[in-house]
Each structure stands twice: as structure tokens, then as C-alpha cells.
Amino acid sequence: MQTITATSLQDLRRGGAVPYSLLISPTLGDPVPVTSADDVLQGSFYVDRRSSDDDVLQIGNTTVGEMGVTLINHDGRFDSVIFEGATIQVTYHLKGEQLAGGSFVIDERPKKGVLLELRALDKMARFNRPYTSGITAGQTLTQAIQAACTACDVVTSTDPIPNGTYQIIGELEADQQYTWRQILGWLLQLAPCNAYIGPEGRLNFGWYDNTATPFELVDTAVWDSSVAEKNIQVTGIVYVQKDGTEKIAGTDDYALEISGNPFIEADVDNCLATIQAKINGLTFRPMELSTLGFPHLWPMDLAHVTLGGVTYQTYFTHVRYGSRDGSTLKSKSAPKEIKDYAVGAPLTQAQRIAVHNLVERYKESMLSEIELGLSQLNEDMAAALGYYLTTIETVMPDSSISRKTYLHDHTTLEESMVIFLLGAPNAFAWTETGWNDGNPAWEYGLGPQGNMIMQIISAYKIGAELILLSDNTNAESRIMELLAGSLTIRESLAQGGVNLVKNPAFGTSQLVETDGWSSGYTLAVLLDRFKGQTMQQMLNTLQGKTMHDLITYNY
User: pTM here?
Assistant: First the structure.
């Protein structure tokens, strides 16, 4: 948790959007300042960080942080910016202070258009580089982690590395392929701790600390909550060795589990004792919360959450801050009954290994059959339609493989003008304007982030925070001007149920007589007085005021 003033915290507890700015520093060219008020599509900004990838606490976690934002480019203001590889520094503008929000690197250039979707990852992604050399037995833990940071061009924080004087005993297998992030995770298990990229872009180390100052969260700041029935209390650590046997420190009432670490394998008893001393007794209540926006919170933060008069202690394992939805705070850890698969009699160690190997072989065979079937189906479709088929594979930050399949009208994508995108999760799109150097300008379609490009929309009801017309004027004010002669003032409008002018002072600030309005009235009171009339009738009564006067009045 980043330190902020009491004034800033009080302001965050009142709710509302937090202003922010982005400084985009391209690899070539001058830095580009971006402000949330002028350059960003409302509600598109988010930052997502985690200290666990699944439903059980992890030791040695190195999850990559992610940031996303959509820039408004209707006037071409960002056309000359080279986004690919650019660094984005986030700054939140709190009440009376500025708060560093993190440093991220754009991993792929956005598609050209009126809206530019940027997705950026923090510097933890740099550890995905292949390992070649640099880690040997006899190094201290600090030396090994520094070697990893040097190889991946990441700077560590000035804080000492936990258990940094420990000398590594085990060796990496020479015939295996590793990434630096995989090795960093193993080194962190020796500490033991997790790692994350801090607000200034440096590698930081942390663990769940019950002596830290907790963040106090009460139900008035919580929109939605889901709380587990029982606390989790960690009682031990289990290490599964290469031969399938288990070593345990503490008890297995609720034990965390690690495996496959060559450095622990060579010194298992000593390493497990160190880990057990750090994690034993860790107690918290799993929960998921949707709250007001608190951009200063981070994974592994200690919190006291009061809901319905009951206070729970928890640690956050997943923190997401968004300009639209506020904060999503999760403390994820499966209950013992689920974690231990306690259904019927427990399996022996040999049975566990046999079942695990069988499941893995079955998954591989089924995946191969499905992939082959889909590939053949796509090829048959393409041939029947007279199109060509191309599949592009991309290695993601988590080492998974993303596949996108395209149908196109010429032998290569570069030569094609008509292109269909198939197979991306929740996505479909097509264009007639060509490949565009790998960034097709899709004319119609649905993207995996929920963005749509369509020609005509017919619907009973459409809800939106912001609608931009082709000339970038605000659709709300334009509609109000068009309907001024026929829009009837209704009860819900008069009571402030609809914020006509996008102003928080709609129902409370008084109109000033010197401006030609009736002294002492608020806009809500005026609307109530003229209820049943049209907006134009009300404005004519008020000394010939216009719709523009109403929309632009400084309440």
C-alpha cells in the first residue's frame, strides 16, 4: 500500500473519478503527455496486478502487471507517435498530492483509427527472456537475483533482498530450457517472498505481513462483496520432489505446496524450515470486493474489512483499479475441502502421481485431436469459399500460445484486401482495406475486449457514459438542443434522477439572480416548478433563456 495523506484518503472515500495523467515516452521522439480529461475515452483506463495466479497462495510469484487505456484520436493527434515499445508512466492526481501509479511498456502497437487501444505490461515481462547463463552454485541469493535483473535490464529496489546471504547449492540442468522469470520464481522461493514491479518501475519484494498497518475498509465504500465462511490459516509447506515423494515442514492441515525447484531439491530440509518460519500461522478471510476507487492499494496489502458490523482480516491477492468501476479487490484461497480434493478416501502418493500423469496425457491427446479437427474444418471452409487460410501464433507473457486464424482472398495476408479474423476468443471481424502491415482497419466486427465496429444499431435501450459524434461534439448537448421544443419535464428529471448537464451540483447549487435566473432556485427546483411543460416553455418563461444557457451555466 502506497502512503497517501489523510486528506487524499478522505477524498477517495467520498467516491468519484480520480484524475490521472500518462506520460508516454516512445523509443524515438519526444515524450507525449496524456490527460484523463482531454485525451482518454471515459472509463477505459485500468491497472491490474496480482500476487497469485490461482486459488491458492503462491510463494515466488512473479505475475506481470497490466495497464490498458483507449486514446481518442479523431483529430489525428497521436498519428505521429510510435507506440510500440514506448514506456507509459502513470500519475494519479489526488487531493493535494500526486501519486506514482506505475511504469508500463506497450507490447504491441495499436490498430489505427479514431480510438487507439493501448495495452502495456510492467517490466516483469522482461524476465520472459530465455535463460542462457549466469546462475551457479555458491552464489548468494542476492547475487543470483541481481544477475537475473542485469540480464533482463530491470533495476531492483534499494531494500535488501530477504535471506539474501543464503548460498545457492543446487544447479540448473544443462539440457533444459528456462526463462529468467521461471528462475526468478525459484530464487524467490528461497527468500521466501514474491516479487512485483513497484510504482517507479523497480523490482520490489514482499510477503503477506500481519504486522503492517492495515487498510481500513468499511461497507459504505463497498458496492458488492462475497465473503468465505471461514478463515484460512496456513500451517505448513509441502515440497514434492522429483521422484514424487513429499517433504513437509509444519502440518498438512492447510499446507502450501511447491515443486520442481532445483535449488530447493538440493537443500530441501533447510529451505523448507526457512519457508515454514515465514508462512506459518498466516491467517486471513478469503473474499471478493467491488469498492470505490483506491489506486494506492497493491497485492499483498493487509486490510481490515468491516461488513455488516463484522470486521475481517484479509490480504489482497488481486487488485484491479479502473476509472469506470473503481477497485476490484480479491483475496483468493480455496478452502481446505476443495484444496485437498477431500472426496472419499485420500489417494496414496503413488496413486496421485499415476492419476496426474494420466490426466496430463489425456489432456495432451484431447487437445491435439481438437486442434487438428478445428484446423481441418477451417481449411475445408476456406477451400469451399475460395479463400486462403493463415494461422498466426503469438507467445504471450505467461508463455501460453495465442492463435489467430485469418481467411483472405490472396495467397498471403500482405497481398490480400478482403480479410476475415476467425478463432480469437469472443472476436470476429472483417475488412476490405487490406493487411495494413499487420494492423488491419476492421470495418465491422467484435473485439475480445468488447469493442464493436458496426454500421447500424437497432435496440430498445442503449446505455452509455459518453457518445461522440463524428465531429467530436458531445451527443448529449446536441440531443438536448434538438429536443428543446418537445422534451417534457418529468418527475424523475425534476428530482435530479437524471443529471441533465453532467454536473454534481445539479440539485443543490443555487442559480444567481444577476445572471438572469430566479434567485434562490436550484435547477432541480426549477424543473419541479415547470413540471409538465417542455424545456423550451420553461426557458421562455425565464426571460427568454436558451438551451445553450442551461447547458453551459456554471452551477
Answer: 0.63
